[in-house]
Amino acid sequence: MSHTAHIPSHRKPRRNAPKTALRAGVAGGVLSTIAVAGAAGPAQAEPVTQTIEMPTITAGLSTAVAASAQATQQVAQDLQTQAQEDAAAATAAKTAKKAKAEAVRKAEAKKKAEAAAKAKAEAEAEAAAQRASRSAVRTTLSATSGSTAVASTSTASSSSSSATGSAASVIAFVKAQVGDAYVSGGTGPNSWDCSGLVQAAFRSVGVDLPRVSQAQSTAGTQVSLSNLQPGDILYWGGAGSAYHVGVYVGGGQFVGAQNSSTGVVQRPLSYDPPSGAVRVL
């Protein structure tokens, strides 16, 4: 053994190699990190530059929003237009319905007016036919019974004051109605037709006569115009087909509801010579 083996050394002990290596590694790692960071710095500048381009994205978004707003506005306008069209169609339909109802009303009124005019024309034609028939009968009878009527007038004149009882009551009744109006179908108390007046006069004494002239002309005993008595029923036309009746009141006079122009009148037999007579009382 060397004689210097137990002499302590004055040299500093060596650092532990692993620790030195660890420190060197840490330092190297830090430096590497700094180097990487430094190297990475320029490479990351481009994304930052790209974020500055956001206005371009915003402009595109604004365009899309504007387009969407425009589309929404167009839809709103379309809906408004459709609503206006629907309202116009409803108004037109209502107007058409009203016009149709008015047209129907006018058509019905026209139809009624035409029917009334037709009925009036038919009534006038019938009245004219009756007047013509009466004129024809009067012309015929004036030649055959004119002298008979005159004779009966003189005969009846003497017997006019002899009416008594029911005959007198009938005569009083018809004379009381002179001046009343003539109305077709009238049965009193202030308007009459010819058979309505005769029926009412005889009803006043308890005698029921048929309602119409044709039946009244055969309701009693046929008598000649030369043998008339007050209260006899006079008729114009044929027995059973007479178109007019009246009451002989004596003195060559009769009372009858003649027509709408004269009403109920008292006239001489020569005014309208009758065709025949029947005696009921």
Strand order of the largest sheet: 3-8-4-5-6-7
Q: Stretches where pLDDT falls below 50 for ≥5 residues?
A: 137-161
What would you call the shape?
rod-shaped
Total number of beta strands: 8
CATH class membership of the domain at 145-279: Alpha Beta
Overall structural class, as computed from helix and strand content, comes to alpha+beta
Q: What is the C-alpha radius of gyration, as a whole number of Å?
A: 66 Å
Q: Helix coverage percent of residues?
A: 55-70%
What is the name of the CATH topology of the domain at 145-279? endopeptidase fold (from Nostoc punctiforme)
Mean pLDDT: 77
Q: Could you state the CATH homologous superfamily of the domain at 145-279?
A: endopeptidase domain like (from Nostoc punctiforme)
Give the helix/strand layout.
Elements: H1 17-43, H2 45-51, H3 54-144, H4 146-159, H5 165-176, E1 181-182, E2 191-192, H6 194-203, H7 213-216, E3 221-223, E4 233-236, E5 244-250, E6 253-259, E7 263-268, E8 276-279
Parallel strand pairs: 1-2
Antiparallel strand pairs: 3-8, 4-5, 4-8, 5-6, 6-7
Describe the fold and architecture.
With 281 residues, the chain is of the alpha+beta class. The protein has a domain at 145-279: endopeptidase domain like (from Nostoc punctiforme) (endopeptidase fold (from Nostoc punctiforme), Alpha-Beta Complex). Helix content is 59%, strand content 12%. It contains seven helices and eight strands. Strands 3-8-4-5-6-7 form a six-stranded antiparallel β-sheet. A hairpin with a 7-residue loop joins strand 4 (233-236) and strand 5 (244-250). Helix 5 packs across helix 6 (194-203). The N and C termini lie far apart (205 Å).
